[in-house]
Amino acid sequence: MGWAVLVGVPWFSVSRVLCSAPRGWGTDRVGFPGLATGFPTQCAGVDATKREYRTFTRVNLLASTGNPIRVRLLPMAKTLGVADPIKAFFTFVGETALIGWDAGKRIWAHPREIGETVGQMSFIGVNSIPIVALTTFFSGSVLALYSTQLLVRYGTGSLAGAAIGLAVTREIAPVLSGIMVAARCGSAMAAQIGTMAVTEQIDALRALNVHPTNYLVIPRCIAGVTMLPILCLIGVYAGIAGGALVSVSGGIPYGAFMISLRQFVEPWDILGGLIKSLAFGLITALVACQQGLRTQGGAVGVGRSTTNTVVISMVLIYIANYFLAAILYTGR
């Protein structure tokens, strides 16, 4: 009988809350359902026809405090976890747009952080040359390894240079250079700015009359926009060199490879890849700055911002790549 009282009374209180509330759960301040905390809740004056903030009283099974807590009765979309990703998406879009707009307005404003800009250009551009050249070289080699066998089988081995050249200039070089910079530099930029945010160094910059956009955002955006096309061009040369090496070793004459390359690859193919890489550099810089500036929660928050920067940048690069390819190369 005693166990029935101990178990039945709390669940009776819970059932009253669920029956009187609309189609949502009562949640506490941190977003966890009231039942998950082990504390049943009692509702005071709930209007079942409206979904508004209502006053709940939390009853502790060990020691009742009776403190009123403001709780929201969430709609079904919130209960199913749909509203949070939508809110996070629009928050990200809004913050990134505001950061980009502010950087565009302040790009010519004084003081101009020339030293910081040059340092970021060296970090993004010069230090990324080996990894971009290496990845594009072997990507072109693998592409040639597959395409050469197929083309030779059907008697069109002389077109290997055209196939590899178009693939490298339009897709492999710009996309791989953007991905490598997002993985290597975007994560580092987000970690640096995030560490400054959680240690209040950004507030110190404002106290010293240094605007964070001028010191942190603009140098990284300029470095990303200017260095990614250069890295893309290096990737073009490395990818074609790797493809030519494998093609020649597969039995295709070097002269035939170069003739088809010059015949089918036009200057616009290379220029389109450079335009793509410019957009990828801007995407990586803006995402890294946005994630870094909104970092909270100490070391855990810094790690989360770093991970989000890499993931979001890569996804946006692939999405932007499709639309840019459709705009730049459709009908050519």
Reconstruct the topology from this structure:
Blueprint: H1 2-20, E1 41-43, E2 53-58, E3 68-72, H2 76-79, H3 83-106, H4 114-124, H5 129-153, H6 160-198, H7 201-207, H8 212-249, H9 254-264, H10 267-293, H11 298-329
Antiparallel strand pairs: 1-2, 2-3
Helix pairs in contact: 3-8, 3-10, 4-8, 5-6, 5-8, 6-8, 6-9, 6-10, 6-11, 8-10, 10-11
Overall 3D form = elongated
Q: How much helical structure, as a percent, in the residues?
A: over 70%
Distance between the termini: 83 Å
Unreliable stretches covering 5 or more consecutive residues:
1-74
- Average pLDDT, rounded to a whole number, is 80
How many beta-strand elements? 3
**Major β-sheet annotation:** 3 strands, antiparallel
Rg over C-alpha atoms, rounded to the nearest angstrom: 28 Å
Helix and strand composition category: mainly alpha
- Domain unit count: 2
> Tally the helices: what do you get?
11
Order of helices and strands, N to C? HEEEHHHHHHHHHH
What strand order characterises the main sheet? 1-2-3
- Percentage beta strand: under 5%
